[in-house]
Task: structure prediction
Amino acid sequence: VHLNDDSFGRTLLVTTTASDVASVDFNSTYITDTYNTYDVVFTNIHSASDNVALRCRMGDSDSAITTSSYSYIGQMRGTKGMDSTETANYADNEETYMAVTPNDSDMYLGTASTENFNCHLRFFNFRETDLAKGFEVLSGAYRTSDSYWSSWYQGIGFDHDNFGNKRNFITFFLSSGNIASGTVKLYGLNL
Result:
């Protein structure tokens, strides 16, 4: 995860420090026509509740689209002392959110100080009016609530119904409870 490296032509737009919040949102203050691609970097995210998954929605007019227009697919693997390998495959094509982490008991986020979540997502085509909008997991690793050290080997999500409008809103939230702590950075870039 490239935390402070702007050699990729990125511009840091905002840093948010989460502290017992229901969601982390980025709106039209930061998502503008200046950039078409956005990177989101999570550092040391902790959940207030054990055994939860991280989810995401996009939107326009500074609010999230909550209809069943999202698709996602992901594959993760992890390891721990008593189990050399664990995998989780997750997918849906008619959901009201995009899953960043799976709804899988081995890969959930947790509350312990050692269960910190770190991830780098890239969102594409946000300011286009005729292309699909979505994200890809570029890198990340975290210790799950079941003590696995886990990482993605595939993770994508997109809105398969709403191509016509530009996006100016991203929200991240958990399947249950609040985001207890951590830092989330939003970068803009043009590819």
Remarks:
- The mean pLDDT is 92.
- DSSP finds no helices and 13 strands in the chain.
- The radius of gyration is 16 Å.
- The first strand starts at residue 11 and ends at 21.
